[in-house]
Specification:
single chain, Spore Coat Polysaccharide Biosynthesis Protein SpsA, Chain A, 7-stranded mixed sheet, extended, glycosyltransferase activity, Glycosyltransferase family 8 protein
């Protein structure tokens, strides 16, 4: 062994006795290689175990966010504030009944139905129009698929029910049936929203000069024929109410659940352009607003207080009606009775509550408006009006179903039906209707209804059998 200095030391230290002894006979071991971790080791590591739950939670939160955000809409359907929203609603004079020279065959009420439920709702609208002695014609847009299935006798029971409702609309309520191709957007998710684009086809019904487009989840309280003779300039293609419930969010828009339109090829083509470029979260109301903002006078306002009241307005606190009153009237006193008395058309909109034909008893109780404490006691007028609207809708729907079934079967016991029974058992019918949240309960409940409605002085065995038959038939409506 010897002292050997590293080569990079100064010369005077090369032979220093204090240098470490280096054994040149022993080879230095090669540097060890660090093994690469396996995938399992990586997954078991602390950083990864910490990151995975955070990543999963992030995805879950992202999934829960609404997909149809306003930003997404703005990126795909750009629209300015319609000029008509800056104007006052058009003044519509009521009809006296003595008007002459009005060509009512040039005007029509129109709605659409793309499901069994919507078709039943449409029948209710047409029944109301007939009861109110409307003079304008009535049109129903329904899917081409239904016509094909009708001819080919497919889809079994559902198609049988749909066919009977279409025939009832045509024969009893004098409705003109128009089968159309359903408009469905590539980004659409929920069927109910996706198929609402079908109402846009109303702009292509050019055999009429004016059409009053109605959403079927609504109630017509008073005649509205006066809208067909409302003042519209030559350039105005649509009269619609303000979507007043969006004013608080700073989103000025026209509503689309009721629209007076002038059908034309140019208007329909414009809507088709907007429809094709619309993105995720774009609804029919957005497309309407996008299509009718370029021309200054292409739209006009209907008074929403008369023609576009929402049921949800009766659930708002008494200090939260500024959107309904409009600018300059924010401090007006909320009087539910006078508001309701003034309204002619009410739209069922109580988000997040479901529509009245889907509502069950628990939801009804939870979402019903609360009475307001006042000096004299509790003011329950808003609650009673709201409750009455939903009861009326449910009861008319049940009566329509039972009437259709009564007309479809020829049994002698129907001749003994006591008309007073309908009025006597209205509360019972309402409570039973609330239990029809499933097909099974619908069968039980409607069988009970059938027994009640066929009540006579005695319950003979044939009557019980017939009532059960009716219950089973009504069961098919809800199955």
């Amino acid at each position: 062994m010897s002292h050997r200095a590293p080569l990079d030391l100064p010369d005077f230290l090369q032979n220093s006795p204090y240098l470490p002894i280096i054994n040149f006979d022993i080879d230095e071991p090669p540097p060890s290689k660090v093994a690469k971790p396996s995938i399992a080791q990586i997954l078991r590591s602390r950083p990864v175990r910490t990151a995975i739950p955070i990543f999963i939670c992030g995805l879950f939160i992202l999934f829960l966010l609404p997909r149809g955000t306003r930003k997404a809409k703005e990126l795909n359907v750009q629209y300015k504030t319609p000029a008509c929203l800056k104007q006052a609603p058009v003044v519509v004079e009521p009809l006296t009944g003595e008007e002459t020279g009005i060509q009512w065959d040039k005007y029509a009420y129109i709605t659409y139905a793309t499901s069994k439920d919507h078709l039943c709702n449409a029948l209710m609208l047409f029944e109301s129009l007939q009861r109110l002695q409307s003079k304008a014609e009535r049109v129903l847009l329904y899917p081409q698929l239904w016509k094909d299935a009708w001819v080919e006798d497919v889809h079994g029971t559902d198609m049988e029910i749909i066919s009977k409702m279409l025939i009832q609309a045509r024969d009893k309520y004098k409705v003109k049936l128009e089968n159309v191709e359903i408009l469905q957007h590539r980004h659409a998710t929920a069927d109910e929203w996706a198929e609402s684009y079908t109402k846009l086809i109303a702009f292509n019904q050019t055999s009429y000069e004016k059409l009053l487009v109605l959403d079927s989840d609504s109630t017509i309280r008073h005649p509205m024929d006066e809208l067909f003779v409302a003042p519209m300039s030559n350039s105005t293609q649509i009269l619609a109410p303000r979507a007043y419930w969006l004013d608080a969010q700073g989103i000025p828009q026209l509503a689309s659940h009721i629209m007076l339109i002038k059908p034309s090829t140019s208007a329909f083509e414009r809507l088709q352009v907007e429809f094709k470029k619309a993105g995720l979260g774009t609804y029919d109301m957005d497309i309407i607003n996008s299509a009718f903002t370029e021309q200054k006078d292409s739209c006009g306002l209907l008074d929403h207080q008369i023609y576009a009241l929402l049921t949800g307005e009766f659930r708002r606190p008494i200090t939260k009606h500024s959107g309904f009153w409009g600018k300059g009237h924010e401090m007006d006193i909320w009087d539910p009775e006078s508001v309701f008395k003034k309204s002619k058309f009410v739209h069922f909109s109580d988000w997040p509550m479901r529509k009245p034909w889907k509502l069950n008893n628990l939801e009804w109780t939870v979402w019903a408006p609360k009475c307001v404490p006042v000096e004299e006691g509790d003011d329950c007028r808003a609650r009673d009006i709201w409750d009455g609207l939903y009861k009326d809708f449910r009861e008319r729907r049940i009566m329509l179903d039972i009437e259709r079934i009564r007309r479809s079967i020829s049994l002698n016991y129907w001749d003994t039906l006591n008309p007073e029974t309908f009025t006597t058992y209205q509360p019972v019918l309402h409570s039973i209707s609330l239990s029809t949240a499933s097909a099974t309960s619908a069968m039980i409940a409607t069988t009970t209804i059938a027994v009640i409605l066929t009540s006579t002085t005695s319950f003979a065995n044939p009557l019980a059998i017939s009532a059960t038959t009716i219950g089973l038939k009504i069961y098919k409506l809800y199955a």
